């Protein structure tokens, strides 16, 4: 795709000659007859290069450069001044303000061609230099994403191991409680009449404990991030009941 060059020049003949030359060199070109229109075209089209006269009505070249540098979208566009002055102070002023180059009128085709090639070349170099940073950032994002995926997998494996361990623990606990219940029932059948209330109290306490373990087992299977809060409240209430509080 051809680069776009904006020419801001109030002299119609000079502007036309510049635009014709740019077209013959294969560039897309835009022309503005004053600084105000030039700023509008620059902000609208974001050209690859701006060639701007210094002495113009309304807004001169310095005003155009200052305005475009305040806009982050146009601040980095290469900027070449056109001038008829040969005073070093005026030329240095333009460069100090941020202009990339200046050309003295009248301009030869070779001077213009070399100046354009130099500025577009510098711009391409800056773009290439910034590309590795973008690539590194993209690679870093990919690595971070991969690390997150590995963390998620590790967490899933940990949760699965936790579930298996808890399930085995609950099953073992239930087996032990069943054995205890059987022993309590035998004790209640053979105990002396005066010890009957103690045996019934023990059986009641055992029933509470068994119910608590069963509820804990069910809650462990249902516990997910989406319903953790509600289920934990239910679990806490069951624990308080089992503890007699």
How would you sum up this structure, described in words?
The protein is of the alpha/beta class. It folds into 2 domains: 4-107, Response regulator (Rossmann fold, 3-Layer(aba) Sandwich); 160-242. Helices cover 68% and strands 10% of the residues. The chain has 7 helices and 5 strands, in the order βαβαβαβαβααα. It has a 5-stranded parallel sheet with strand order 2-1-3-4-5, sandwiched between helices. It starts with a strand and ends with a helix.
In short:
This protein has 245 residues and is α/β, with parallel strands linked by helices. The chain has helices at 12-24, 35-45, 61-70, 88-96, 109-190, 196-222, 228-242; strands spanning 4-8, 28-32, 49-53, 79-83, 101-104.
Helix content: 55-70%
Q: Under CATH, the topology of the largest domain is which?
A: Rossmann fold
Q: Any low-confidence stretches, pLDDT <50, length ≥5?
A: none
The count of domains is 2
How many E strands?
5
Structural class of the helices, strands and pairings?
alpha/beta
Using only C-alpha atoms, the radius of gyration works out to 42 Å
